[in-house]
Amino acid sequence: MNEWIWFERIILGVIVINSILLGIFDYTYYPASNSNKPIVNTIVEYAEIVFTLIYCFEMAVKLVALGIIEGKGCYLRLGWNVIDFSVVVVGFINFTPQFSNLQPLRAFRMLRPLRIAKKMPSMQVLVPTITGCLKQLGVFWLFLTMYLFIFAVFGIQLFSGITHNRCRLTPKPV
Fold it and tell me: Which of 119, 138, 154 is the last residue of a domain?
């Protein structure tokens, strides 16, 4: 079943539907407010349970087929499967009453659309390329921040005190 092409296509379809539902979730609703809960949020919350169970079934099938840790091509030795495993585990943690309103864990489910990258070989090439570029963009942002900081200090030194009481004509507001 792990190598069955329709299994992969069904899981890919589930991921796409889950991504669409994550996109239509109404994040403006706050549970402590007195307003009624949007019907879309109720549908998405119930669908989350179904999607987590489907992902759990996929993980269980792959764990049985590939093995957990032992062997060359086992489940947890591939980085993409580690992401899948963590998404499923965090999905189950979200259903426990103690962690049901923990927002960082709810944000972790945004990694589910990243699972599409595992299914497409061209995406598997793009993701490391983009992450490699992000490292160099970090250096660029550091340089840009230093550049702006230097000119901010220069501006403060150049204009310090010159514009004091220049915004109005009277010493006190009218």
Answer: 119
Domain coverage including residue 101: 5-119
Q: Which run of H or of E encompasses 17?
A: helix 5-24
Joined tokens for residue 53? 């169970």
- Domain final position from 119, 142, 158: 119
The reported pTM is 0.64
Same-domain status, 92 and 127? no
Rounded CA gap, 136 and 126, in Å?
Answer: 16
Please report, in tens digits, the pLDDT of each residue of the chain (174 residues total).
Answer: 556 788 888 988 988 898 888 888 887 776 666 678 888 888 988 898 898 899 899 889 888 888 877 777 788 887 778 888 888 888 888 777 776 666 676 667 677 777 677 667 787 788 788 888 888 888 899 999 999 999 999 888 887 767 666 666 666 766
